[in-house]
Amino acid sequence: MNNRYEGIVGEETAVEYLQAKGYKILERNYANKVGEIDIIAQDHDYIVFVEVKRRLDDRYGRALEAVTPAKIAKIVRCAEWYLTAHRQYNADVRFDIVTVGSSGVEHLVNAFTRQDAGRRNHW
After folding, report:
1. What are the pLDDT digits (tens) for 45-80?
2. May I ask the CATH architecture of the domain 3-116?
3. Which end of the chain is more exposed for a tag (fewer CB within 10 A), N or C?
4. Domain ranges of the chain
5. 3-state secondary structure string, 69-101?
6. What DSSP designation does 25 have?
């Protein structure tokens, strides 16, 4: 299977998982001139920006390792752009990571913050 197909499967699995936990999906594959965010959701009083990673095995490293400091910085910039364009969301902001693999779904709530942009990963 190709990487794009695997990404679509991973994102669909993540959406189903989040919806089952009560999240309201606001956007999927939101893109602007600074980047893309896989899922934007609402969880109670939070607007949640979700990065999804799918790995069938660890041959190329753990899925979390693919979320680099540069990727975090890009997600944060993209989220700030989204929030500027959607001022109706007067909510707290959170950045989560959902990994989808052969062992199931792992959800890291508040995986990083705006201040982590450009810093070394802590996982």
Report:
1. 999 999 999 876 555 556 566 788 889 999 999 999
2. 3-Layer(aba) Sandwich (3.40)
3. N
4. 3-116
5. HHHHHHHHHHHHHHHHHCCCCCCEEEEEEEEEE
6. E
